[in-house]
Every structure is written in C-alpha cells, then in structure tokens.
Amino acid sequence: MYTAHQVELGTKVRKLLADKGYVSVAVPGFEATSIVVMYATAPEQANGSAFKQAGVQIASGVPLQVGEPEGFSTFRIGLFGLDKWGDVDGTVARFAEALDKVVSA
Length: 105
Description:
mainly alpha, globular, 2 strands, two-stranded antiparallel ribbon
C-alpha cells in the first residue's frame, strides 16, 4: 500500500516532467507511484550525466528488451525515502530546479 505522500510526490514529479515535454514509458493508469521512467531526449539524460551535473542522482536508461526500436532511450527516477516523502514540496522544488538545468543544457 502506498502513502498519500508517495502518490503526491509521484504525481507532481510526473507533471513537472510532462510540462517540460517528457513522455512517460508507462501508459496512463499503469504508472508506478515511486518510480518514474521517461523517454530521454538526449544521450546525457539516458546515461544520467546531465542529471548528475545538475546535482541529481538518477538511474540511467532502462533496457526493456521487448523489441524496442533503434534509438530507444530512457531514464529512471526513484522517489524513495522518508526524506522525500516527508517534504514533498521541497523535494519537488529541488527536482524542478535541477530539471531546469538539464533542459537548458
């Protein structure tokens, strides 16, 4: 069972990414609450270096191995931890700041 904080954090981070033009790998209704996987728009996003440079640790591309096309590229954000769930607005604000750096790089 997920807490309201987990759901709120996942929803807000997904919205932030969608507002910047990122597309979720998960179809609507099947998104994981605490893991966000998005299609990458640059190799530096898929390998995590763009986020690292912005001060955020993510997981690099997620290989699905289900016949994905050439150029398939993703990144994954884990939204785990009591520190994140205990300060949803602060976590979202810090991620938004880092995401702005990633997008403008």
